Amino acid sequence: MTEQNESLINHSERQPSERAVIFTGGRLGSWAFPHIGDSDFLIGADRGASFLVEHGYAPDLALGDFDSVDANQMTRIRQSAKELLIFDAIDKDWTDTELALNEALSRGYRQIAIIGGLGTRFDHSLANVHLLRQAVSVGCDASLIDEHNEIFLCTSECRLPQDERFPYVSLLPLTSEVTGIELQGFQYPLHNATLRIGWTLGISNVIAENTGVVKIDSGELFVIKSRD
Question: pTM of the full predicted structure?
Answer without folding.
Answer: 0.89
